[in-house]
Amino acid sequence: MSEEKWNVTSLKEYFEMQFNLFENNINNRFANSEEAVNKAEHEMNRRLNGMNEFREQLKDQENTYITRTEYNLHHQSMLDKVTSNTKLIYWGIGIWAVVQIIIGIIVAYELNKL
Question: Which of 37, 75, 95, 105 lies at 20 to 30 Å from 111 by C-alpha?
Fold first, then answer.
């Protein structure tokens, strides 16, 4: 192996070459990282758009639901109707029972008469 002798010019050329290689390497890495950031940003925007669409769907769906106040109002109205119908049924059963008793008394009275 031959021994190379270094002089100022050869050292300068060597360091310039090493510096250029280093600079090219840094530039390539910077370009690659910039490309990776752009891809990540694009993917994040795509995901956020999907989430925004989902949020809009939930908002639209929420607008079709009735509020708790509206539900309570309608529920109380139905309970009042059920209560009044129950009272009416109990009155009807009571009247029917009274009619049966009266008919039973009349039939017993008529049977005793014969």
Answer: 95
Residue type, 39: K
User: Using CA of residue 9, residue 10, residue 15, residue 18, what is the dihedral sign?
Assistant: positive
Q: Alpha-carbon distance 10 to 85, whole Å? A: 110
Residue 1: its pLDDT value, please? 42
How many residues does this entry show for the chain? 114
Residues 29 and 35: their CA atoms lie apart, in Å, by 10
Give the other-Cβ count within 10 Å of 16's Cβ: 10
- Residue 101 pLDDT > 50: yes
Residues 61, 84: Cα–Cα separation, whole Å: 35
Q: Which residues contact 102 (CB under 8 A, 6 or more apart)?
A: none
